[in-house]
Amino acid sequence: MNNYTDNAAAVTAVLSNYLNGVFNGDVDLLRSAFHPQALVAGDVNGQPYFKTLDQYLDGVKNRKSPFELGEKFRMEILSIEIINMIAVAKLRLPMFEFNYYDLLSLTKVNGEWVIVNKLLTNVSI
Fold it and tell me: Which domain of life is it from (predicted)?
């Protein structure tokens, strides 16, 4: 495989871990997908949302997961763009009666791809 194919597979694996972590409420799996200094920002119903990674993970830990609520897994990766050692991914995460869209920035640190920034919003269906 070439370098681009290797990187695309590695980025997709991180994004899959992220989606499975969100859906199942698996904080350890989510933590493994992020850089420890990652920031999470955006808006929910027009209200500003800004958290450190630890604040975000604490919220995930203290809520029922979509899986626990019996929701169907409908999350999807919409696009991935990779340039050298950086990547941007667009994802859709319908859950909790929201239609979330995430824009995730990733970079390769010590040979591993990690999410360094999460932007989120929800769009009315």
Answer: Bacteria
